[in-house]
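Quick one - inputs below.
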Amino acid sequence: MADSTPRIDGSLLEQYKNRTVRVIGKVEQIDGSNLKLYTPSDNSNNLSITVSTTPDLEFQQGIWYEIIGRVLDNLTLRAIDIQNFGENINEKAVAGLVKYSNKSSEIFYE
Amino acid sequence: MASDYNGGDYNTSGGFDSTGGGSQGTRTQTKNSLTPVTIKQINDSKPIIQDGEFVVHNLELNLVSFVGVIRKVTDNTSNLQVQIEDGTGSIELRKWVDDNAQEDANTFIRDGKYVYVTGSVKEFGGKKNIQHTTFREITDYNEVLYHHLSAIDSHLKAQGTIKSDSGAQGSTNGLFVSGPSASETGGLSTADRIHEYISENTPSMPEGVPVQLIAQNLNLLVDDVILHCGKLTEDAKIYAGYDENGFLAV
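Output:
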């Protein structure tokens, strides 16, 4: 299905180049139109990725977001749409969802 | 009931009654359970028998729950036509407007909102539809994560890869804990864990417990499992099942 967006974390960017994905992470630092996003992962510790954003998307430091975005060639994520997930998100559940949704991809994406 | 089916009267008018009774029987059984799913599962599901329950990957869908983001709302006065997307697919459904209800009952149904939806799966003209829908706004977004994890859990139970009754506690933990925790492994060696797993599953898998399944459940590499199974076979603790890919405990 064209509108499915695999759930990934920072460790999987390479595999999803030029695809639209969903990433859940916490904003660590905002620097103009770029921000550093911490993505909990089962594959590695303290993984942050760079997200490029546009003025119409409102980000706040320390807040969790679900970002729908496109993985660019330089492995940054270009944010297309965001959901504010608030301050309290279970990191283990985020990492678990990425891991297990990819293991059971038949119910998430083709 | 079984004899009615065996009568093979499906196409006669007499048979119609018996099939009607039969489907009612199965319906009352499944109606009680609310299955957490992804939208892709709803869209992929098909009835195995005509007018029967929708099934996807061995999982029966009747009453389902899902979470997703509202992407389009069309107000048709008597109802709202709502398009919802959850990253796995999208589906269009209707929310009937209750004239007598307070006006703000549906205000949270608007673009970009995360909602939790329940309803029963139906199909019209090749398109999936959800009837008897209820909507609830999501305020704690951990619910999105937990819902999808629950959907994976029920999916895997339907595949028989994890146990549904006594093993439920352990398997739920399995979904939430990143690696096998100390209590889960109980200080056992990898070989012991493989042996234990094969022993547990031998009664239900007479053709052999597949090495892939062992690897997946114990979070090991298939090659490692094969290696350990070789040693366990030499120790006469297990033996090869139907073929070399599956093992049974002695």
